[in-house]
Amino acid sequence: MEKVFDEEVAMIRDTARRFVRSRLVPLEAGIDAADDVDADVLARLRAEAVALGLYGFNLPKALGGPGLGVAAKLAILEEVCFTSVPLTEVIGHLPLSLGYFNREQRERMLPGILTGKKLVTYALTEPGAGSDLSGIRTRSRKVSDGWVIDGAKQFISHAETADHILVLALTDAQAALKRRLTTFIVHRNNPGIVGMTRYRKMGWRGYHLNGFSLENCVVPESDVLGEAGGGFLAMIESINHDRIFSACRSLGLAQRGHEMACNYARERSAFGAKLAEHQAIQFMVADNDVEIEAARLLIHRAAALVDADDPTARIATSRAKLYASEMGCRVSDRVLQIFGGMGYMCELPIERFYRDARAFRIGEGTSEMQRIQIARHALAGR
Ligand SMILES: Cc1cc2nc3c(=O)[nH]c(=O)nc-3n(C[C@H](O)[C@H](O)[C@H](O)COP(=O)(O)OP(=O)(O)OC[C@H]3O[C@@H](n4cnc5c(N)ncnc54)[C@H](O)[C@@H]3O)c2cc1C
């Protein structure tokens, strides 16, 4: 892979690597132990990422991004995904749903978003609807100068600190799924957002997932994203793209654990030989090596197809996300095994990799949802 990197991509990759390893990695253990992170620290780091030209690296020029090619975007992604989940947010992998902003919304909101001063998140999931978005019950009704939303959302990434929450709500219960929902840009200080809670969870510590209700939440017409009834498409396009990011996060975590396990196996001795000389360890190392490379190739293929706007990009993205997320769990399990008892202790990040890997099989579409899409595609003979 290295050889195909041209000079500019290599430079971008080095910038990202230096920033991630010198500024973000040292903070990981403290954030994980506290299950929290100082918002001011994150804001300062985002400002550094902006200054380095990394923030919003995935956006096209039309949205004020750098319009990088696929090789550069992947190079940054791989470097960023070396660090822990709450810290990857610093780099500003921004939702492509921003492409649905109209001119006035772009002028009003993009400058804050692109400079990392205003944060965006999206809220699809609710108590009765996760994989199956047809179960969405948060509803919006038209009033004279806007909309009123009522409902509840759960498991929403950093809703408590986001400035703009893209809320998917029902606008026409009788319409087909693709025309039934509308995405609203709801500002966090809207008095209609009530009862914000924070989940305690297994991993991703310091990255907060929230639940909240929308009660008589008034949203002006100017804060509809795209057109009324077009909310599903406005969200889903972004989510398909985010699946590559999610797959890269599994890859980064697996790659880092694998490298640490190889180093450890070379140093640690048992029964008169280095761990690396025992065949049982070698086999785990080999399986990790192959699976990581397979995930990387699937991700690169999916990213290239997305970049080319190829109609098969969606299925390629599902393949990459499914394989990488399941690979991340297998590899982090083997890595922990190679470390023995030390892998289970919080002195090293190995147990964190194991905890963090698990969520990737659920978020951005569960493994089962990816399998359903892939099987449908294969069985249709495409
Ligand atoms: C770390 C994390 C971050 C998240 N961030 C966000 C966010 O920012 N915004 C947001 O909106 N949501 C977010 N989510 C929510 C996430 O998108 C949902 O959890 C996910 O879509 C699954 O929905 P669910 O939890 O309701 O499970 P369900 O849909 O209830 O599914 C439960 C189980 O049943 C399986 N299942 C469901 N239907 C079928 C079927 N037809 N065939 C076979 N199996 C099936 C599922 O695969 C799963 O294993 C996040 C979740 C996590 C874990």
Task: Please characterize this protein's 3D structure.
The chain has 382 residues and is α+β, with helices and mostly antiparallel strands. The protein folds into 3 domains: 2-94, Butyryl-Coa Dehydrogenase, subunit A, domain 1 (Orthogonal Bundle); 120-229, Butyryl-CoA Dehydrogenase, subunit A, domain 2 (Beta Barrel), CATH 2.40.110; 236-379, Butyryl-CoA Dehydrogenase, subunit A, domain 3 (Up-down Bundle). It is 49% helix and 15% strand. The protein is built from 13 helices and 10 strands. The chain has helices spanning 7-24, 28-34, 39-51, 70-80, 85-88, 103-114, 177-180, 231-267, 279-307, 313-339, 341-344, 350-359, 367-379; strands at 120-123, 139-143, 146-157, 164-170, 181-187, 193-198, 209-220, 224-225, 269-270, 273-274. The strands form 3 sheets. It has a 4-stranded mixed beta sheet. Strands 2-3-7-6 form a 4-stranded antiparallel beta sheet, with no helix packed on it. A two-stranded antiparallel sheet has the order 9-10. A hairpin with a 2-residue loop joins strand 9 (269-270) and strand 10 (273-274). Helix 1 (7-24) packs parallel to helix 4 (70-80), helix 8 (231-267) packs antiparallel against helix 9 and helix 10 (313-339) packs antiparallel against helix 12. The radius of gyration is 21 Å and the shape is globular.
